[in-house]
Amino acid sequence: MRGMLTLLLIGCGAETGETSWSQVETQGLDILWVVDNSSSMGEEQDILGSGFLSFVNELDEDDVRIAVTSTSFDATLGGFEGDTPFITPQDDDFLSEFASRARIGINGGDKEKGLEASIAALRDNEGDFMRPETLLVVVYVSDEEDCSDGGLLDGEPPEECYRQMDSLPPVADYVSELQDVKGTSESVLVGAIVGPKASCEDSYPGRRYWAAAYQTGGLVGNICEADWSRFMEDLGASSTGGLRRRFAVNERVVEDTLEVMVGSKEAKGWVWDDEACAIVFDEDTAPEGGAKITATYEIDVDAKPCLAVE
Question: How far is CA 264 from CA 59, 186, 267, 278, in A?
């Protein structure tokens, strides 16, 4: 369980913080891909299907379930793609079946509600897909911003989402819902292949998806790139092995003040990811199951806040 962030005032008005987590060792993976099926996504769906092998090659888990849903929450109401709720590596046509499901079509709604769609899909298919002992990985793939609005903009045109972005329910609320569906915050990892800050043609920055990923210690890839294999490799490596290696602090820290402890010992083999505001352990130094990880640091009060808390 992630600890509460404690702020203290020390000399010269500097703020310090402390965040703690418990390492949970999971068994197996349940992976939900949430794919934008609006009219601009045909090429990106092809890239996702072709890059899937890079993801699979990094998985050392035999116990994997993979499902696909769309961002058209109003239309699909939590449905999964395909004739069965999920596919596994043991299926004879595993790679081709994922590619088929990822090519979800481009006739979906233009008000993409990826966060809401993922929660609805998991709730509606909980008994058929998600298991209590596994790591839940949710990956959003979209060239638009998330417009999950909790019904606020029902009946309004899609562009109204961008005009009222500040009025949408906070991303943290949807992350909490994901964790509630799973039953534990430590067993949820979010990834996103979305528009970057300096977006490309026909793509918009996916800030709300970035935030969901960073709040869970997840990864963000660039949908504008023609080859996603590197991101897919990194995502696969982060998803496997049963032990979490990324721990989101969600504060801009002064890096040289950051101290990390595993139990009563100083942690080794980690780096600070300033973009994601996260501590990242090497594959060989990930804390063991049941370990308590504690980070203390000075907060960089002059820096822009992490995307996860904007």
Answer: 32, 21, 9, 21
Name, in order, each residue with C-beta under 8 angstroms of 268's C-beta and a sequence gap of 6 or more. Answer: 285
Would you identify the CATH topology of the domain 29-239? Rossmann fold (3.40.50)
- Name the band, by pLDDT with cuts 50, 70 and 90, for residue 6: very low
CA dihedral of 187, 185, 190, 244, whole degrees rounded to 10: -50
- In terms of Cα–Cα distance, which of 217, 227, 233 is closest to 275? 217
Residues 81 and 99 sit within 8 Å (Cβ to Cβ): no
CA end-to-end span of the chain: 23
Structure confidence at residue 191 (pLDDT): 93
Angle at 70 between CA 62 and CA 310, to 5 degrees: 95
Three-state SS at 96: helix
Write down the pLDDT at residue 78.
60
**pLDDT above 80 (res 255):** yes
Question: Where along the chain do its domains lie?
Answer: 6-24+245-309, 29-239
Which one, of 219, 43, 56, lies nearest residue 140 by Cα?
219
> CA-CA distance, 218 to 137, in Å (whole number)?
9
